[in-house]
Structures are given as structure tokens and as C-alpha cells.
Amino acid sequence: MWQFIKYVFATIVGLFLFSLLGFFLFIGLAAALGSSEEKTNVEKNSVLKLNLNNSIQEVSIDNPFAELTGGQGDVIGLLDIKSALANAKLDPNIEGVYLDVQYPMVGWASAEEIRDAIIDFKKSKKFVYAYGEVMTEKAYYLASVADKIYLNPAGGMEWNGLSAEYDFYKGTLDKLEIKPLVFRVGEYKSAVEPFFRENMSDASKLQNQVLINVIFNHAVENIAKSRGISAAQLKNLADSLSIDAPQDALKYKLITHVGYYDEVEASLKNELKLKEDDKIKFVGLGKYIKADKLIKDGPSDRRIAVIIGEGAIMSGKSTDGNIGSETIMEELRKARKDKKVKAVVLRINSPGGSALASDVMWREVQLTRKEKPVIASMSDVAASGGYYMAMGCDKIVAQPNTITGSIGVFSVLFNFEDTFRNKLGITFDRVNTNAHADWPSVTRDMTPFENNRLQKSTENIYAIFTRKAAEGRKMPLAKLQALASGRVWSGKEAKENGLIDEFGGLDKAIQVAAKAAKLKEGDYRIKYPAEKNMVEQFINKLTGNAEEQLMQQKLGDFAPYLKVLKKLQQMQGTQARLPYDIVIK
């Protein structure tokens, strides 16, 4: 028996050491590959290939293995895509762009920036091809500016309008005998509705209906211009479900060709004047960003610093998927103290989060704008706490399809007393030094007095939010409050009602910042944040991914609902957060 135990123990130790060695070999290899600064030599008659079906974030994750997987990482940066297109426009060795676009994992405002960058690239008179086996509406929105749009004969195109569907958990909470305790301000602050309703309130349904109508109408108008089809006809095609097969898309001129990939290749070869047996010289994004930069940087002593906040807002350091107030504060301080930085662009892609963390960042914005201009650039979402970050800036720039507003706050607690007693047989008792020493509690009912105190606290934070928003937007408090109440607005509506200043993406915000700092075009350098390091991301996610994969394996289709409950753990204190997780499809 002892001999058996020794063998088992030795095997376990061996496996552990092997795994540990493998891990460090991976880190070493990644570091070695990642440290390579070898430039990409772009050959003549090359084509920039953009695979837009990956997850697209503001900043890419540096993947040292990208060249082994097609020249592009799993998470690509919006900044890299735009930079590559701008460079390719000037690159004499790049003859055109090939878009692989089917299921782009990107928000509508980011899609707008990519689309605008493609339109700008076309000013070079170089070609743009797009191909997809299938295409969603968002994929088609990107592809619609291409010179030639190919759809696989056996594939399909989604063209039936946009929909936004939300999950409600009241029935689940009732079955588990969990009592939600909700404190909110504003009839439109519907982030907490899933916990005490089974459907959307009239106010919530109204704001969401208006929102998706604005986003779809904006897309339709732009597609109509690109394809020479009337907006009315495009809407009729969606209402009648007329686009059932690729041939239908061709019939109504939404695409230019129905064809397989080999036919796309043949057309590209003809465009490039290649022979049938010649190979197309594709260069992927991962490689092309290492090519020579043809857009020259301005003077290093005159800079515009771009600070990016992406994800839910919380206190502490930023992590993948979360904006940490401490990290943003540090970046703003650096920019404020750096004499070479003449202006700051705060790029925001956030549904909100902690009201306290949002206010802490607002304060740092105020300190910075006393010394140099601070311009907010809204990405896909800059709502609630995300709007809190922006409202103190000198100017706010957003896309017409940006989701913003949601000026409101809420607090939510759950009473698990009946759950523990009736489901698990667990009861609680306590002694206190004072009448409310255990307040707030999740294992007993709160008294009316205690509920009133939490509601007043939530209202006080809302009053601070709206007052500061009114000051930042230079409008009467009463007018701002009429736009608040948690109401979600599209960027188009936000400009009409004064919540933002100008339409545009990050490039426009940089132009506004340069003008505010009295810098001439070409007379400054843009200081972008460094891309995320893959090795650090790997270490940070090592345990998190294992947990997520296990959860997915055990729960299958129910895994996303558990994720929602896990998010509640992050909602500490009063929240300035967007209603639901808005997913428009």
C-alpha cells in the first residue's frame, strides 16, 4: 500500500511540475515572440485583409502568436483597424482591402467608425471587396460601402430590422423566496426592473423602442446612400422579409455578386492583374500594423493624450472588462502634469457602474480641465456612470448611434431570510449595541425607517449627479432633470437635447481637442495607450476562464443567467448603471 501511495504521489508531483514547466515555457515563448520588433515588409500588389468577425475592443490584446494564426489576434483593437486603413490609403504597395465580415462582435458606434475609415480609404481610389458566407445587419452595414459585395450562394443575409430583448428574474426570485429591495430615482431607471417585474414598464419600453428605431433608421439612411437604394425600399424589404436567400439580396441590389470564395479570389486576381496560378499577397492586420508608418507623427513636445475607459465602472484598478477609477485617475494626473501634453481625450465605452467611482473620476476631470482641455469621446455606450465621466469635460463628441444618457441611480439589496429558512432550514438571530447596528441586512426585513434612509441616500446621490450634469452642460437644472430620470438616449437625440456637442468618432474628438489647445493640424502627436499584453491577460484570466468554462460546461444555455447573478456581486453601493445589458440584434 505504501508503495502504491508513493507512486501516486510521485505521479501527482510529476504532473504538477510538468504543468508548471509548460506554463513557464509558454510565458517565455510568448515574451520572446512578443518582444520581437521585426517590421513587416509589404510586397507590391498586396491586399490588406481584415477579418472583422473577431471581438473588437477599443485597444487590442497583444498576441505574439498572431502570425501563427492568420496574422490577427482573437481580440483586435478599433484603433489598430482605423490606423491600418489610414496607412493603407497612403501605402503604394497596398492595392485594396478585403473584408471578411459575417458576425462582427462590435457595437454600432464602433462599427460606424470602422465604416467611416473604409469610406475614407476609398478616397485613394483603391478597391474594397467584402465577402461573407452569411451576413448579419451589422455585417452588411460594414460591407455596404464596399465596391463589390459577395454573398455565398448557400448562405444568407439577415435583413429584418433590429430587436432588443431583455431577461426578467422576478419569477426565479419568487420561486427562491428572495425579496428584492429596490431604491431608485427616475421612472426610466429600469436597470432594476428585471428583479421585480416580468416585463418592461411602459416607460422602459418607450425609451428602448425609440432607441432601436433611431439606430436602425440611421443605418438605413447610410446604406441607402452607399447602395443607391431608397430608405423606404430598404425598410419595406425588412418588413416583408423579402431577403430570404442570397439571390434576393442580389435582386434588390443590396449586394453585387452571389459567389463562392474561389470566385471572389478569381475576381481579386483579375483586379490585381494576376494570372490564374498566381497567389494573392494578403497581409493581415496583425502583420500590417508592424509595417512602415506613412502617417508621420507631429512634434513630441506637443501631444494629445488619449485615455481609454472600457467596461463597467468600479473602484480600484482597471481590469479586463472593467474601468477602475484609480487607474483613470492616475492616467489623468499623468496627462495633467506632463508639460508635453496639451490636451486630453477621454474615450469612454461604458454602461456605468459604481456612482462613487464615477464621481471620483469626475473630480479628476475637473482638476485636469483647469490646466488643459479635456474632450470626451463616446464609443458604443457612454451611459449613466459613463455619462458621469463625460459630463465634466469641455466638449462631448459621440456618434449618432451611441447609447448615452441614463442619468439616474439605483440601489438594490436582496432579503434571503425566507430562502435560508424554507429552502435550507437555516435561521438567524442577533444582538446589537444600537437599534440599527446590523443595517443594512440581507437576512431580515428592513424597517420602514431604514428603507426611507436608503431611498433618501439614493435621492441625494441623484441630486448630485443631476446638479453636476447641469453645470457641465451649462443648462438650467430643471431642463437637465427633464432629460434625466434614467432616460436612455441615442447620440442623435442627445445632440438635439444638448447632452452632447458634436457628432463623430475618436478622430473628431482629437480634432476638437487640438482646436481647443490651439494646435494646428500636423503640429502635434497623438499619445495612444499601449496595447494590452497577452501574457498579462493570460495570467489574469487563467483562473477566471477555467471557472467560466466549467460554468458553461455544467449549465449550458443557462450559464448566461448565472453570470447576471454574479454581476450583482460587483454592484456595491449606489449604482449609476445602464438599464439591463443592452444587446441590439
Overview of the molecule:
With 585 residues, the chain is α/β, with parallel strands linked by helices. It has 2 domains: 46-159 and 243-289, 2-enoyl-CoA Hydratase, Chain A, domain 1 (Alpha-Beta Complex), CATH 3.90.226.10; 303-530 and 539-584, Alpha-Beta Complex (2-enoyl-CoA Hydratase, Chain A, domain 1). The protein contains 20 helices and 24 strands. Strands 11, 14, 16, 17, 18, 20, 21 and 22 form an 8-stranded mixed β-sheet that branches. Strands 9-7-6-5-1-10 form a 6-stranded parallel β-sheet, with helices on both faces. Strand 5 (94-100), helix 3 and strand 6 (127-135) form a beta-alpha-beta unit. The longest helix is centred in the first third of the chain and has 33 residues, at 2-34.
User: How many domains would you count in the coordinates?
Assistant: 2
Portion of residues in helices?
Answer: 40-55%
Predict the CATH topology of the largest domain.
2-enoyl-CoA Hydratase, Chain A, domain 1
Amino- and carboxy-terminal Cα gap? 61 Å
**Multimeric state:** single chain
Unreliably modeled segments: 32-36, 537-548
Average predicted confidence as pLDDT: 87
Shape: globular
Under the CATH scheme, the architecture of the largest domain is Alpha-Beta Complex
In this structure, how is the largest beta sheet organized? 8 strands, mixed
Determine the number of helices (DSSP H or I, runs of at least 4 residues). 20
CATH class of the largest domain: Alpha Beta
Subcellular location: Membrane
Keywords: Hydrolase, Membrane, Protease, Serine protease
Organism: Runella aurantiaca
Main location: membrane
